[in-house]
Specification:
Strand content: 15-25%
Helix content: 10-25%
Structural class: alpha+beta
Radius of gyration: 12 Å
Number of helices: 1
Strand order of the largest sheet: 4-3-2-1-5
Shape: globular
Largest sheet: 5 strands, antiparallel
Order of helices and strands: EEEEHE
Length: 94
Protein backbone atom coordinates (compact mmCIF):
# COMPACT_ATOMS: atom_id res chain seq x y z
CA UNK A 1 0.00 0.00 0.00
CA UNK A 2 1.41 3.36 -0.99
CA UNK A 3 1.93 5.89 1.80
CA UNK A 4 -0.22 8.99 2.10
CA UNK A 5 1.13 11.90 4.11
CA UNK A 6 -1.25 14.15 6.03
CA UNK A 7 -1.55 17.73 4.76
CA UNK A 8 1.27 19.94 6.02
CA UNK A 9 0.27 22.99 8.08
CA UNK A 10 2.90 25.64 8.77
CA UNK A 11 3.31 28.26 11.50
CA UNK A 12 2.14 31.14 9.30
CA UNK A 13 -1.05 29.33 8.22
CA UNK A 14 0.23 28.09 4.86
CA UNK A 15 -0.93 24.55 4.02
CA UNK A 16 0.02 22.16 1.23
CA UNK A 17 -0.07 18.45 0.46
CA UNK A 18 3.40 16.92 0.15
CA UNK A 19 3.47 13.40 -1.28
CA UNK A 20 6.06 10.84 -2.34
CA UNK A 21 5.18 7.34 -3.54
CA UNK A 22 5.07 5.19 -6.65
CA UNK A 23 2.18 7.19 -8.11
CA UNK A 24 3.45 10.69 -7.29
CA UNK A 25 5.63 13.08 -9.29
CA UNK A 26 8.69 12.43 -7.12
CA UNK A 27 12.13 10.85 -7.27
CA UNK A 28 12.68 8.08 -6.64
CA UNK A 29 9.21 7.06 -7.76
CA UNK A 30 8.85 4.42 -5.07
CA UNK A 31 6.36 3.67 -2.30
CA UNK A 32 8.96 3.19 0.40
CA UNK A 33 12.18 5.01 -0.47
CA UNK A 34 14.55 5.78 2.38
CA UNK A 35 14.75 9.41 1.17
CA UNK A 36 13.37 11.44 -1.72
CA UNK A 37 15.35 14.07 -3.63
CA UNK A 38 12.14 15.52 -5.12
CA UNK A 39 8.49 15.30 -4.09
CA UNK A 40 5.01 16.22 -5.32
CA UNK A 41 3.23 19.17 -3.73
CA UNK A 42 -0.39 19.97 -4.30
CA UNK A 43 -3.24 22.33 -3.67
CA UNK A 44 -1.65 24.97 -1.42
CA UNK A 45 -4.09 27.29 0.33
CA UNK A 46 -2.32 30.30 -1.23
CA UNK A 47 0.37 30.79 -3.89
CA UNK A 48 3.94 30.24 -2.73
CA UNK A 49 6.83 31.85 -4.64
CA UNK A 50 9.18 28.96 -3.84
CA UNK A 51 7.19 26.46 -5.90
CA UNK A 52 5.52 28.47 -8.70
CA UNK A 53 8.07 27.25 -11.27
CA UNK A 54 6.91 23.66 -10.67
CA UNK A 55 3.15 24.30 -11.09
CA UNK A 56 1.35 22.07 -13.54
CA UNK A 57 -1.26 24.83 -14.07
CA UNK A 58 0.14 28.33 -13.58
CA UNK A 59 -3.33 29.82 -14.04
CA UNK A 60 -4.66 28.01 -10.94
CA UNK A 61 -1.87 28.01 -8.35
CA UNK A 62 -4.07 26.77 -5.50
CA UNK A 63 -5.81 24.09 -7.54
CA UNK A 64 -2.90 22.28 -9.12
CA UNK A 65 -0.02 19.93 -8.39
CA UNK A 66 3.67 20.79 -8.38
CA UNK A 67 5.76 17.91 -9.65
CA UNK A 68 9.33 16.95 -8.87
CA UNK A 69 9.97 19.82 -6.44
CA UNK A 70 13.57 19.41 -5.20
CA UNK A 71 14.07 18.63 -1.52
CA UNK A 72 16.21 21.76 -1.15
CA UNK A 73 13.31 23.95 -2.33
CA UNK A 74 10.89 22.17 0.01
CA UNK A 75 13.23 22.80 2.95
CA UNK A 76 13.46 26.52 2.06
CA UNK A 77 9.67 26.69 1.77
CA UNK A 78 9.24 25.05 5.18
CA UNK A 79 11.65 27.51 6.79
CA UNK A 80 10.06 30.54 5.08
CA UNK A 81 6.63 29.54 6.42
CA UNK A 82 7.89 29.22 9.99
CA UNK A 83 8.20 25.45 10.24
CA UNK A 84 5.81 22.54 10.33
CA UNK A 85 3.02 22.64 12.94
CA UNK A 86 0.87 19.70 11.82
CA UNK A 87 0.88 16.99 9.20
CA UNK A 88 3.68 15.00 7.67
CA UNK A 89 6.50 15.38 5.19
CA UNK A 90 8.10 12.48 3.33
CA UNK A 91 11.73 11.79 4.22
CA UNK A 92 13.88 14.23 2.23
CA UNK A 93 17.55 13.98 1.29
CA UNK A 94 19.76 16.21 3.38
Amino acid sequence: MKPHYDRAVFADGFTVSIQANGGAYCHPRSDHAHEYDSVELGFPNKPCPFIIDYAEDRDNLTGTVYGYVPASIVRKMIEAHGGLLEGEIPPLVS
